[in-house]
């Protein structure tokens, strides 16, 4: 069985305006899956429905054999420790240090009091340093996050997701605020996470060429409908036109 199975997912924010319509797809363990589509297609809504940051109206989301949409608050909290999230604007606490931000990824495992007091074990701290080293930013561990570049902050965001020991990482336009070099660094790290750690990554992207280079599979949304699902190789010009209604040349990042 796939790690994640989505069936018939539907979402409207307002009556008669369907943002996601009957979406079906799956993601295997260790797979790198991109979601592409024009602005407003529903990519962020879809990603956020997966961990119930946004509540879908209908459909099933089966993650690790559990139907996410049926879970009660405490069960959902537990399942969310298996699902990391990486955001376009990093969502770090700017005045806190890099290491403190990374350790925030352990909050899902703590009681409220432990969380407030910032009680972390030596093992958790060692793991945080290990991850910072892996992402090449251990020298910045004690700097405030607002002293880091965008690319470095995104690496902190990835470390914070990884310290959860997730099975799945959802990345909502992780490179949309970054220059081409930093974007490549982040995409390379995300790819290595799937390959070396076996963690599934689902990544919303605006750049078709990036999706094609990094993904095992791509899904394409247009106006809330799934209009493509297949391997990067199967994503031909004709399918790209179905997704965007235009030629790829306008979508290549260069
Ligand atoms: N909270 C909300 N309330 C009402 N409508 C919303 C809300 N969030 C998103 N929408 C609408 O839902 C549609 C899909 O938005 P969504 O952000 O999921 O698209 P997207 O593909 O991620 O777009 P982008 O690439 O520009 O980020 C858009 O028409 C948007 O205006």
From TrEMBL:
<keyword id="KW-0918">Phosphonate transport</keyword>
<dbReference type="InterPro" id="IPR003593">
    <property type="entry name" value="AAA+_ATPase"/>
</dbReference>
<keyword id="KW-0547">Nucleotide-binding</keyword>
<feature type="domain" description="ABC transporter">
    <location>
        <begin position="4"/>
        <end position="248"/>
    </location>
</feature>
<dbReference type="Pfam" id="PF00005">
    <property type="entry name" value="ABC_tran"/>
</dbReference>
<keyword id="KW-0813">Transport</keyword>
<dbReference type="InterPro" id="IPR003439">
    <property type="entry name" value="ABC_transporter-like_ATP-bd"/>
</dbReference>
<dbReference type="InterPro" id="IPR050086">
    <property type="entry name" value="MetN_ABC_transporter-like"/>
</dbReference>
<dbReference type="InterPro" id="IPR012693">
    <property type="entry name" value="ABC_transpr_PhnC"/>
</dbReference>
<keyword id="KW-1278">Translocase</keyword>
<keyword id="KW-0067">ATP-binding</keyword>
<dbReference type="InterPro" id="IPR027417">
    <property type="entry name" value="P-loop_NTPase"/>
</dbReference>
<keyword id="KW-0472">Membrane</keyword>
<dbReference type="GO" id="GO:0005524">
    <property type="term" value="F:ATP binding"/>
</dbReference>
<protein>
    <submittedName>
        <fullName>Phosphonate transport system ATP-binding protein</fullName>
    </submittedName>
</protein>
<keyword id="KW-1003">Cell membrane</keyword>
<dbReference type="InterPro" id="IPR017871">
    <property type="entry name" value="ABC_transporter-like_CS"/>
</dbReference>
